[in-house]
Write a structure and sequence with these properties.
This is EF-hand domain-containing protein. Helix content is 62%, strand content 5%. By secondary structure, it is mainly alpha-helical. The protein folds into two domains: 65 residues, Orthogonal Bundle (Recoverin, domain 1), CATH 1.10.238.10; 83 residues, Recoverin, domain 1 (Orthogonal Bundle). α3 packs across α9 and α7 packs antiparallel against α8. It is elongated and about 60 Å long. The N and C termini lie far apart (52 Å).
């Protein structure tokens, strides 16, 4: 499939070729997904997705496609000022004001999750948020907190 869509034989897929490839396997792609793919999967940093990079990350892509609506809703909920980014303060405010965590717990959680802020600008882009949200670390934190709340 990859090779049939790599029409010019470069060994990597352009955006339109990647979109066709993903559509063939039933993944409907939107612009935010393309940004996520480029930022998340381009391991060698050359700006292109080689077959190895795509194959190594197909499971993440499918998770993202399955949970797209949930991810967009969560991102938009946390992006309080609607600037297209989730600042650490926005995330901390939601975790604290919704009663999910104490202020101290939310600071610790954000400190732990800050590693997903790849460019260290103090905010999460959509692709950084998706990577964080789909991580085992985030799931473990949320599950642990739910269990603590349920036992109170």
């Amino acid at each position: 499939m990859f090779r049939t869509k790599d029409r010019d034989g470069t060994g990597w897929l352009k955006s339109d070729e990647l979109e066709e490839c993903l559509n063939m396997v039933g993944v409907d792609i939107i612009p935010e997904d393309m940004e996520f793919l480029q930022e998340r999967f381009d391991k060698n940093g050359d700006g292109h997705l080689q077959i190895e990079e795509l194959m190594d990350n197909l499971h993440v892509l499918y998770q993202h496609a399955i949970h797209r609506d949930e991810l967009m809703t969560a991102f938009n909920t946390f992006d309080i000022n609607k600037d297209g980014y989730i600042r650490y303060t926005e995330l901390q405010n939601i975790l604290t004001f919704r009663g999910f965590m104490s202020a101290d717990e939310s600071r610790k959680t954000i400190s732990m999750l800050s590693k997903y802020d790849r460019n260290k600008d103090g905010k999460f882009s959509y692709s950084e948020f998706v990577e964080m949200y789909l991580s085992d670390e985030f799931a473990d934190t949320v599950t642990k907190r739910h269990e603590e709340i349920d036992t109170k």
